[in-house]
Design goal:
The chain is mainly alpha-helical and 177 residues long. It has a domain of 100 residues. It contains 7 helices and 2 strands. The chain has a two-stranded antiparallel ribbon. A hairpin with a 2-residue loop joins strand 1 and strand 2. Helix 2 packs across helix 3 and helix 5 crosses helix 7. The longest helix has 31 residues.
Length: 177
């Protein structure tokens, strides 16, 4: 999947490049940061993380439910939802720790980068974003093959997504924010 290439202005751009250039910013901009504040305030941080993990598990289960057919149709939506839930969990933990919910994109992506094991500097570069995209795609797609088996794939997809989001939360909680 990482080898997929798209044309952009005459030159190929890999899936990680497209995600880094367009996807992160779009997903980040679509996140309701005030809604995250409200959710953390009402539920508490642990319940909020659990809620996000269950939302991710839902799309993972649907993606694997029908085997190859639902996998091929559902995997883009599943990946976007996983990214959204990862961003929501990260922002929720940031709010819980700092008491502020308006985080600038560059600072946020630096935190995401560190949480997935990418060395992040003070300046957000395209190369760093592509490295983050690559790491995330590898993590999210690690057990994608098991989703090709109807019904069993639903369990695999749901479980994989659930533990992916829980792992994100553990990683972000370890950071000195």
């Amino acid at each position: 999947m990482l080898g997929l290439r798209f044309q952009r202005r005459g030159r190929p751009v890999g899936l990680t490049g497209r995600l880094a250039q367009i996807g992160f910013r779009r997903v980040y901009d679509s996140v309701n940061q005030y809604g995250i504040k409200k959710g953390v305030d009402e539920m508490g941080i642990d319940a909020f993380i659990e809620h996000c993990a269950r939302l991710a598990a839902g799309t993972g289960a649907v993606t694997g439910l029908g085997g190859p057919v639902t996998f091929l149709i559902g995997i883009p939506a599943d990946m976007v939802n996983n990214l959204m839930q990862q961003f929501r969990v990260t922002l929720g933990i940031l709010y819980h720790r700092r008491g502020t919910y308006n985080i600038a994109f560059d600072e946020f992506m630096s935190i995401v980068a560190v949480s997935v094991g990418v060395e992040a500097g003070m300046i957000m570069t395209r190369g760093m974003l592509e490295h983050v995209a690559e790491r995330l795609l590898i993590r999210m797609g690690a057990k994608a093959g098991g989703r090709l088996i109807p019904l069993v794939g639903a369990v695999i997809g749901g479980t994989t997504n659930y533990f992916f989001i829980k792992g994100v939360a553990r990683s972000v909680r370890r950071l000195p924010l």
